[in-house]
Amino acid sequence: MAERRAFAQKISRTVAAEVRKQISGQYGGSPQLLKNLNIGGSVSHHTTVPLTEAVEPVDLEEYLNSHPLAVESGPLRDLLEFPRDDIEVVSTPRECRTLVSAVPEESEMDPHVRDCVRSYTEDWAIVNRKYHKLGTGFNPNTLDKQKERQKGLPRQVFESDEAPDGNSYQDEQDDLKRRSMSIDDTPRGSWACSIFDLKNSQPDALLPNLLDRTPNEEIDHHNEDQRKSSRHKELFALHPAPDEEEPIERLSVPEVPKEHFGQRLLVKCLSLKFEIEIEPIFASLALYDVKEKKKISENFYFDLNSEQMKGMLRPHVPPAAISTLARSAIFSITYPSQDVFLVIKLEKVLQQGDIGECAEPYMIFKESDAAKNKEKLEKLKGQAEQFCQRLGKYRMPFAWTAIHLMNIVSSAGSLERDSTEVEVGTGERKGSWSERRNSSIVGRRSLERTTSGDEACNLSSFRPATLTVTNFFKQEGDRLSDEDLYKFLADMRRPSSVLRRLRPITAQLKIDISPAPENPHYCLTPELLQVKLYPDSRVRPTREILEFPARDVYVPNTTYRNLLYVYPQSLNFANRQGSARNITVKVQFMYGEDPSNAMPVIFGKSSCPEFSKEAYTAVVYHNRSPDFHEEIKIKLPATLTDHHHLLFTFYHVSCQQKQNTPLETPVGYTWIPMLQNGRLKTGQFCLPVSLEKPPQAYSVLSPEVPLPGMKWVDNHKGVFNVEVVAVSSLHTQDPYLDKFFALVHALDEHMFPVRIGDMRIMENNLENELKSSISALNSSQLEPVVRFLHLLLDKLILLVVRPPVIAGQIVNLGQASFEAMASIINRLHKNLDGNQDQHGRNSLLASYIYYVFRLPNTYPNSPSPGPGGLGGSVHYATMARSAVRPASLNLNRSRSLSNSNPDISGTPTSPDDEVRSIIGTKGLDRSNSWVNTGGPKAAPWGSNPSPSAESTQVVSSATDRSCNRMSSHTETSSFLQTLTGRLPTKKLFHEELALQWVVCSGSVREAALQQAWFFFELMVKSMVHHLYFADKLEAPRKNRFPERFMDDVSALVSTIAGDIVSRFQKDTEMVERLNTSLAFFLNDLLSIMDRGFVFGLIKTCYKQVSSKVYSLTNPSSLASLKLDFLRIICSHEHYVTLNLPCSLLTPPASPSPSVSSATSQSSGFSTNVQDQKIANMFELSVPFRQQHYLAGLVLTELAVILDPDAEGLFGLHKKVINMVHNLLSSHDSDPRYADPQVKARVAMLYLPLIGVIMETVPQLYDFTESHNQRGRPSCVAVDDYESEGSSMISQTVAMAIAGTSVPQLTRPSSFLLPSSSGRQHSTFSTESSRSLLICLLWVLKNADESVLQKWFTDLSVLQLNRLLDLLYLCVSCFEYKGKKVFERMNSLTFKKSKDMRAKLEEAILGSIGARQEMVRRSRGQLERSPSGSAFGSQENLRWRKDMTHWRQNTEKLDKSHKPARSRAEIEHEALIDGNLATEANLIILDTLEIVVQTVSVTESKESILGGVLKVLLHSMACNQSALYLQHCFATQRALVSKFPELLFEEETEQCADLCLRLLRHCSSSIGPIRSHASASLYLLMRQNFEIGNNFARVKMQVTMSLSSLVGTSQNFNEEFLRRSLKTILTYAEEDLELRETTFPDQVQDLVFNLHMILSDTVKMKEHQEDPEMLIDLMYRIAKGYQNSPDLRLTWLQNMAGKHSERSNHAESAQCLVHSAALVAEYLSMLEDRKYLPVGCVTFQNISSNVLEESAVSDDVVSPDEEGICSGKYFTEAGLVGLLEQAAASFSMAGMYEAVNEVYKVLIPIHEANRDAKKLSTIHGKLQEAFSKIVHQSTGWEFLLVEFFFPFSAPFPPPPLFVFGLFWFLFFFFVLHCGTPNFILAKSYANSSTPLMAQGMWCCQLQALQCPGAGTRAFLSSP
Question: Is 1208 or 649 the better-scoring residue by pLDDT?
Fold first, then answer.
């Protein structure tokens, strides 16, 4: 294999393996890192088997025998073994539609009839896997059942949902502002204001016992109880199923075979009324298809005559049967089309005169003229009565009309009411349509309007219509044939119809047409059987009318039906001598030649008896060559003989009454024998007519045979055309099928010779004939094959199971039958491809196997082969075992057997050789079983290889196996002394089937492979039936089947796996079907065979596929097949039991260089040798993969496919993740595993999943991205990993090992993780990542906590941090989206573009919140997510609206433009999402608690606890429910209480973060959240204080947090925060323990300070438009941040910026000087550099107020602590920058002396750095400044102008009143502002810098002019 892929080469790269082995400890022994490595030097059989190779499975039966369970009963007991009632064989009575089942009346039946009847009446034989519905194929995690599981969910309270909307919120805020006191209403100091407001606030409820000193264990225990109470049990009930097609493992139960019906139409005939009523009229209805030129239903005869009219016929008509009084009928139409017409034909009693004459009165007389024409009508009535009396039994054609059915249906469908009245006038063809209710005209439309195409041909849902047909056409005597009718009907559809020009017969026929109801009452079948629900036999029935479908219908027969329709068509007596003009044909069905042998089997028409012995055709007056349009329906006897025939007698009817003239004169005879060579004779006939009565014994001959001495019309030419049609479920009407059935029955009855066609088959050539007839089945028509499918397959199977004995020899027909079956099912598959399910299973075949097939010897009432069974006669050779071989069998002769395979040598040797000679090339060795699968064999597979439950049992031995396979069946038997030496024999069908399949080759094998599912399912059902009838369902599995059968199965599975591997690229579709069929087969075998053996078969398949997968460059399609295969096998309902969930993994027998042992030495925590069992449980170790075999395969596939180095497999991520998700969600909802103890066992099977997902962390979709835009903390940085201590391997070394030199981050995102390889990973899609994470949470939720804890102990620091990173990601992934998001999504109308879909999916699945999206767009940053596409680069995720949890009903949306979902649905979705978020976070919290317990005793706990805290903080930052937050705060308090140094010494930035989170929740609108957050914040201060009598750290962080919170939060509510601050104060007052310390005062100071900042910040927002007030507030806020240098600096710079904006350059400069002084103060504490200023003292020449910046207070935190003074300004360069800005601002303000003072500080710094360029610039600027001072005037005028307009250009001298104004203001200032301010101002005025003094005076005056101006910030004393 020269071109091995890199991926495959890694498998044996020892150097890398050794290196990795050495460092495996650092990875906690995670086997995923070793998945492709085959570590050399195997020490024991437990050495690592690479994940890409299959391990040897456990021998399950052996294991269960040798490990009896300790548990006697209870839920765990049920996990151990399959239930006893797992499989049941059920005999279900077949549902019969009719009250009495349809069976022949005769008691004596021939074998074929008997078989057919049995086939139509016997019960269904169903194999039921009782628990099958609990397999994953029926996972309730689909929308319909999810709703059930989601009932009773509590509503979770979320702040985001509680927050009021914009307007009301604004009103509330305004109201609060009015209530809180304005800055001007209080005394000057804002402290007073603050304290006043705060004292008046209400605190929240205090938490009980918060201040008690409780032991940590007790707190933990209490917290855990609280967390665990009333949790939601089923996690997956809250998580939508992943978006996938119909799950591949779902096999739908086939439909029950039943009688075929098309779309059904109910036609009710209401009334028929002519203008004159003088005689009875008879009507019939039938459907015709013009396009197909076919009559598509039988006739329905109805009689609407009045009792008076019927009375005219009384002498001729016997009493009518109720079945003939029907006036309503149900028509079935399989192929409705635009070409279907309902044709109504009318007949009347025969009378003298042609049709035109007889119809004349109906055309000329009008009902309105009845009085005028009274006499004429009386005369007509009198004539009619005479004809009725004399000719009452004869009819004549009268009139007809047709209704275009689809017009009625489509028109009625478009009307709006319940029913419609349609008036159809045939002459002018206009219809008036009126509503029955209000009879208003809806509109006129032409009845001939046609709808386009067949799409409108739906008969199941149109509105019922009442038609009134007003016009009929009279029948033309010479145009009665169907051909003529089709021409008329085609013409009717044309606008210029010829028929329009004809004069109509006016009448009124009212008909109701409607869709037939589902189960109509009082219904009769075409055979006149009563359909169920027939409460009263006296009610007028509805007739079901038999359909003659326009095209073939492929449905197997399921009911007995045996009807014959005779259609006399035409007669030509033109050349007949003598008088024969009014001709009628009498039709009789005869069983002999005597006239009395006519059978009463002809169905009556209307108002007559049910059956009669004869039927007459209608007479066309004076026509020697009449056409006929009769349909004569006959009930055929079940068993026909050669004497059954149809007899036609032709009569001349004398219409005029003449003396001595008989009423009817016979003028000819002809007949049709019913059987010809044993087959029913049907079709078109053109018969000669004899003038004389036929002679004796005529019935066995055909009339075409010239009988001597007989006279024939027209010289024995054919003159009578007749068609005979059979609708029969007994007669196949196919020569090939007939021959096959005839031969089989000849064997059955042993009746030789057999006559078939012209052949007589003797016994000696029967074998060849039988074989040729089996192979000729291929030539038969498909339609009869399908109709007789069940019987045909039964017979073929019987031939396999019971080989016949012909002429003393056993004929093995196994091969021929197998070939025939293969070709038949392939024909069905090819021709009926619309009839298949998703796996390509033909539904007809599937239902045959499921319902019909049973082992031939298991027919009810015939356990032993005998006449009662399926052909169970003793003439079959029945082979049981016997010690003595009967001599008559002579099995040693070379032709003792008709071999099933001609290629095998004449004298067969052992079956093994026989099979091997065929499989030769496959290299299978029978001696050691086909594939050595089941691990170490304890014993041969079958201790009793006997296939039947016969009396003697002989242990199979070598000699046994060496004799012929056939004879090995025939070793014991009692010899039956029959004529031909036949033996009762039984072969087992599944054994024979497996053998035939294994040995077949060429096209037969191909055909079998194409439809492998059929043979597999057949085999399985046969196996179950065998076990059931042999009472072996309870037997030990190892003894159920003989070894040679198991060898055949092994061979079969192995070769089919080979086919899959070799052909998957060529025959993709076929291989997909083959793959799923094989998987379903193995799934079925797990229920009935030795499960260890089946595991071996699975391994065989796996091995073949895997070895191919890893040699391919693009393995994804084959790997995908492997996943399908695995998924189907794992869908077994006892999947958990098969994985031995209760078995404890045994450690390796001897030391081995396994991953785990390497771990134990260098594990982060465990000092002693770790518990091997625990490690094995969490790794895909060999013991794990062996004992939990299927789970091992699933998790191995997951690990291998998700491995970033697995080239070519990334397209399968979604598929493999869905498989795991599907399994877990199925377990989650399974009632058998509801008990927590049991669920923990189930979760144990998935413990390695945690490790697998930990390995994929770098590839997971980064759900945290959106959070970082909200200022949330980034996750663990690479440094954290590098600084893990000496025991850890460094990142660089790890990278070098992985093959890259420089550590590269896996993705440019916030979620920073080191990757194990430098290659960029393809990121999973959001959906796949989400599915993986929910699986992880499920395992963590349900796994045994003690086991998890032990495992965590064994994990390295790096791995534990990985786990924490995963939990961090989970928090973001399952964050609650909020009702508003759901509503917004609901209002979106989906655009079809891919981009929109991607974004929508992101918004829904939580990767981008809608708000962030808006923010990003506004910043122009809306790029794709860093991982490539929004989905992750590899998975082509389709957005399937119908499947997702968030389903959008776009159709509705498109039509009505209303929101797609109701308010209730949105509420429901929000409810579920809220519960999911809460449950997911509680699981994370549980896991964090376990981690904390685990690491609290170890040395390296700091980094881990930091990670725990990080996850906790992250969860607080997300949108969480009140319930979760309460538990979260409780955990956080416990954590801080246990490890205070963690926050206050180690993770200082997290202290800041925690303060921010707590403060944020202190301002929550939900009371309980505030209570808990306040409690946490108070305890934080308390613990900080207890460490060092001071809580400067927390003070500073809280103050900073408040600043960022107030500054950034949009809907911040100060009232809520004020309540929380009050709560903290209350705790401080009630804390007795610390009452004597300074703590309460410090808390009070902090709270008041916070409150002042809060009030000022809120007011700043109010005063945005008032700059002076704004600056004043900013100053106060900056003052509040005296203890946090970073924040004070920020606010000072903000003030400088605001001043600059308004060109107040002097004020701006003063702010910058204060900033520089602050920086200098802290720099001097950090760095000792002589040239830097020594602190703020250096700046007091510029302004003495800078001393405010000195860091002397107790609360000042030292600047070397992390997170303090970390901004860019707290550096030398920052200081220089601030000073340069200050100098520039002083210069712009014209305060040049100050410029000089600033540069005095700067020059030493530049000199120290020898920056000549900067020094040159500075001296240049100084020169400018001094020049300006020199040029300044010193006059009073200028001074005063400067006083009032200090920053404007020089003014002209002011007028004198200015001086007066100055002194006035001066005194005003003193009075109002008090002396201190005045003195200060004065001191500035007397200062040595006159310009400075001017500036300061001016500032003070400006302050006076504009109260609140910010300048007094620097003039007031502190």
Answer: 649
Contact (Cβ atoms closer than 8 angstroms) between residue 1651 and residue 198: yes
Contact 1175, 1156 (CB under 8 A): yes
**Residues in Cβ contact with 694 at an 8 Å cutoff, skipping those fewer than 6 apart:** 593, 669, 671, 703, 707, 710
How does the average pLDDT of the chain come out, rounded?
Answer: 77
Q: Is 1432 left (phi over 0), alpha (psi -120 to 50) or beta?
A: left
Cα–Cα distance list, 87 to 135, 362, 522, 1084, 1715 (Å)? 14, 73, 41, 11, 85
Q: Is the pLDDT of residue 1482 over 80?
A: yes
How many whole angstroms separate alpha carbon 362 and alpha carbon 365? Answer: 6
Q: Which two tokens stand for residue 112?
A: 């074929």
Give the whole-angstrom CA distance, residue 88 versus residue 71. 27
Amino acid at 107: S
Inter-CA distances, 1252 with 964, 1146, 1255, 1620, 1645, Å:
53, 22, 5, 44, 52
Look at residues 1681, 1533, 1679, 1668 and name the one whose alpha carbon lies nearest to residue 1599.
Answer: 1681
What is the model's pLDDT at position 1777?
A: 92
Spell out where 872-979 has E strands.
897-898
HSE (side-chain half, CA atoms, 13 Å) at 857: 23
Say what the pLDDT of residue 1915 is: 35
CA 1884 to CA 311: how far, in whole Å? 139
Distance CA 1150, CA 1153 (A): 10
Phi, psi for 1873 (deg, rounded to 5):
-100, -5
The per-residue pLDDT for range 1655-1686, each reduced to its tens digit, is 887 788 788 888 888 888 888 888 888 877 88
What does the block give as tokens for 246? 């119909």
Which two three-digit tokens encode residue 688?
């000669």
Query: Which of 242-256, 750-764, 924-938, 1325-1339 is the most confident on average?
Result: 1325-1339
Instruction: Give the whole-number percent of the chain exceeding pLDDT 90.
Output: 47
Q: Tell me: the pLDDT tens digits for 1807-1818? A: 999 999 999 999
Residue 1366 has what pLDDT?
Answer: 94
How far apart are alpha carbons 265 and 329 in whole angstroms? Answer: 8
Residue owning tokens 């901004």: 1767
Residue from 812, 814, 827, 817 nearest 796 by CA: 817
Find, among 1340, 1341, 1401, 1333, the residue nearest to 1368 by Cα: 1333
Whole-prediction pTM: 0.78
* Greatest CA separation for the chain: 168
Q: Cβ neighbours of residue 1647 under 8 Å, at least 6 residues apart?
A: 198, 1621, 1624, 1625, 1628
Under DSSP, the state recorded for 553 is: -
pLDDT in tens, 1168-1195: 444 677 888 898 999 999 999 999 999 9
Which of 1409, 1428, 1429 has the alpha carbon at shortest distance from 1417? 1409
pLDDT at 909: 40
The per-residue pLDDT for range 546-580, each reduced to its tens digit, is 999 999 999 999 999 999 999 999 999 998 888 88
Q: How far apart are CA 848 and CA 837, in angstroms?
A: 15
**Which residues neighbour 718 within 8 Å (Cβ) at sequence distance 6 or greater?**
686, 687, 688
Structure tokens at 495: 């606008």
Of 1120, 1098, 1296, 1301, residue with least CA distance to 1201: 1120
Residue 1768 dihedral angles phi and psi, to the nearest 5°: -70, -20
* Three-state SS at 670: strand
CA pair distance 785, 611, nearest whole angstrom: 32
DSSP 8-state code for residue 435: E
Record the tokens describing residue 1403, joined without a space.
Answer: 């918004």
Q: Which residues contact 1586 (CB under 8 A, 6 or more apart)?
A: 1540
Per DSSP, 36 falls in state: T
User: Are 1328 and 1432 within 8 A, CB to CB?
Assistant: yes
Contact between 1795 and 1821 under an 8 Å Cβ cutoff? The reply is yes
How many residues belong to the chain? 1918
